[in-house]
Amino acid sequence: MKTFTLPGTELVVPNVVLGLMRIAEMSDDDVRHLVRTARDAGIDFVDHADIYGGDHGCERRFAEAMRLTPSQRAEIVIQSKAGIVPGAGGLRYDFSYDHLVGQVDGSLAALGTDYLDILLLHRPDALVEPEEVARAFDDLASAGKVRYFGVSNHTPGQIELLKKYVTQPLVANQLQLSITHASLIAQGVSANMAGEDQAVDRDGGVLDYCRLHDITIQAWSPFQAGFFTGVFLGSPDHPELNAVIDRLAAAYDVPPIAVATAWITRHPAQMQVVLGTTTPERVTGAAQGSDLPLTRAEWYELFRAAGHLVP
Amino acid sequence: MKTFTLPGTELVVPNVVLGLMRIAEMSDDDVRHLVRTARDAGIDFVDHADIYGGDHGCERRFAEAMRLTPSQRAEIVIQSKAGIVPGAGGLRYDFSYDHLVGQVDGSLAALGTDYLDILLLHRPDALVEPEEVARAFDDLASAGKVRYFGVSNHTPGQIELLKKYVTQPLVANQLQLSITHASLIAQGVSANMAGEDQAVDRDGGVLDYCRLHDITIQAWSPFQAGFFTGVFLGSPDHPELNAVIDRLAAAYDVPPIAVATAWITRHPAQMQVVLGTTTPERVTGAAQGSDLPLTRAEWYELFRAAGHLVP
Amino acid sequence: MKTFTLPGTELVVPNVVLGLMRIAEMSDDDVRHLVRTARDAGIDFVDHADIYGGDHGCERRFAEAMRLTPSQRAEIVIQSKAGIVPGAGGLRYDFSYDHLVGQVDGSLAALGTDYLDILLLHRPDALVEPEEVARAFDDLASAGKVRYFGVSNHTPGQIELLKKYVTQPLVANQLQLSITHASLIAQGVSANMAGEDQAVDRDGGVLDYCRLHDITIQAWSPFQAGFFTGVFLGSPDHPELNAVIDRLAAAYDVPPIAVATAWITRHPAQMQVVLGTTTPERVTGAAQGSDLPLTRAEWYELFRAAGHLVP
């Protein structure tokens, strides 16, 4: 497992991390097996959110299953998120002081820990008041409840607005990225091309921005074809892509999921891949992509096979 | 009426202002009634443009109907715009020194005043030479003809280019914004989503940029569904949205137009709503939305009811 | 021929330059005639790329046909590009140190010269490591192999990322631009308009960015309707545009191609037009657009006639 010091922090982190959004219904044994498998693969970083599994459900499930001692807890990086509020009529977002601080308290209680290593703002609140976020972060930091802060699904402009008041470095931006859902990479390859959907800017150039400012991109849904529409690995909807993946997997003697992982870890932005699977073998397989040295030719072949234009 | 000191100026302004683009054919009495109604509601800020009602037609109509004494004129903020040139074959834009200075002189003559409080560049001139704009602004400012400057329909990049030479602060950016025509808010909520039109960047992140740089956004066509395609209020094309508006209007005991106004004034960017109506009752109704304290849940419910995705 | 000192350099350059991507199969005489015609028109700037005509084919063809003495070579500005790698399955990009330095060496050998005046990174490499580019540029500059550096088809974010490490000024950005393929101008005219394709950001505001940072835009495919889909000049697909072009050409007593050229040279960004033609008469005709003083009304009429919205 390749590790690196997360810029802006003193944390040494793996470039493949374990997302726990789907563990709410798992047994203690299954959770322990999943986490143990990840740890064995070198993954000592878990990704939570207050809303995963309902009201802190996955955080609580994790804590109850793992029953970590303080020293065990200190061995891992625990990241959680706040800012999304489910409701009867649909979602809303809330970055108010009270909501953020309250949700972190809820996460700490559910996780049975004194601190989060990293707190991410889950999705940009259209009604954000950056002064309030700054106040919340200051209080969470000074109370020792959160060590580092970041965002998720944020554009450069939204981050700049936060930074007008937030003094802590924003160390991560968790964004949807897979070989097939790759606009944040593909747009820049084909900018300024009339009539090409791939040329359409959907993120304000967030990849270059994050690289420029040493904000680590965490790729969520790394194997999803679209927005929770199913995985592309093995899907008959992506025959050309899977053919290339399978060929490279055979050549490198790894499972296909390792190649899909490596397509992200190979990128020089030094991203982290957030696994969403609850299947231990997939975790092991994906971990094999942590340091797989895809060549430029292979990386671009995968990119083209996913349907992206290389003009 | 909620008021605030317009950042970059010493003007105390209301967050709902009276746009006068449609008064060219109104009688003196009707103009006076409209303006008096606005003043009674606390609206002491009028929005003009050289081209409204033809060649300074609305500016002249306003002046002839109001016949303001110097002290009456000093009580209100008069904003006008220049830069659009109608022509037989279509519009063009012109930010040349001669055009800008000449149009301001024309506006001052038509308005019967010595100065504009604010001059906006109406639409970005593709052939802009920022050095010329700077020279025009300098001369207009030093001659006492214009107190403050701003833009309309400008992107962050266009503003940055102007600021390379313009030394006065650009205090306002007038942009189309309503619950339904809300890309400048909605894009940021769904950035980086493949296949979603809402994710498409159409403005370079102008909302965050203006907040970051203390440029006040003025929302034009605040009740229009699209680009002058008709209002959404009461329209059978927007049943879900109107149902929510009507319910909230009843709950707050205000007319529906106040809720539509409040959706904009509630936003923490502290925008101004530019009314385009010539109906006094609508002005009164909209003014009731100046300080209506929509909750986050209500604001997001309106947003979703207008068809925007909250992923 | 209008000339100007290319910002960031000591080069005095024409605003119309000769692109040599299509000379691979031309005879010595034809190449010499083409270049002589350009020189007679004041065009002393040629645009190459390593991949034009295959592996340095056009560069070699140029050198073999011209057999320039050192003093003749010093009379002209030679620009080339690197970074695109053709392959059996499609293109890829490669901004690695070894590739860039190797390709420049190949270009120098093919061109029979000791130095390139300008080297452009041809298309953005998704796997760019700006530290490597910086190292390559440093070594190429200190070895005297390249005098100045620039990019092609790059967005503002990509340029900013390069500038994080590259210390030389990036003096040019070669981008596709013609009256019909004009998103980089047209988007800004109609930003924030829902439902209008013209409002869609495809380049991150590269025009304003380049003007702001004194990066000269070089317009490639200046007469192409789309992405190598054929020229619009004289095309029955563009009757309205050609009618305006022909009328203006007659009025100014120049060929239509001069008007199409002037639409670009008239823009205050002081761009260069990169001709792709191998027909000497077209070069002569285009050169007549170098300093043609289109009025604002004429420029906008051409813009509207090409189908762009001026709202």
TrEMBL record, chains A, B, C:
<dbReference type="GO" id="GO:0005829">
    <property type="term" value="C:cytosol"/>
</dbReference>
<protein>
    <submittedName>
        <fullName>Aldo/keto reductase</fullName>
    </submittedName>
</protein>
<dbReference type="InterPro" id="IPR050523">
    <property type="entry name" value="AKR_Detox_Biosynth"/>
</dbReference>
<dbReference type="InterPro" id="IPR023210">
    <property type="entry name" value="NADP_OxRdtase_dom"/>
</dbReference>
<feature type="domain" description="NADP-dependent oxidoreductase">
    <location>
        <begin position="16"/>
        <end position="301"/>
    </location>
</feature>
<dbReference type="InterPro" id="IPR036812">
    <property type="entry name" value="NAD(P)_OxRdtase_dom_sf"/>
</dbReference>
<dbReference type="Pfam" id="PF00248">
    <property type="entry name" value="Aldo_ket_red"/>
</dbReference>
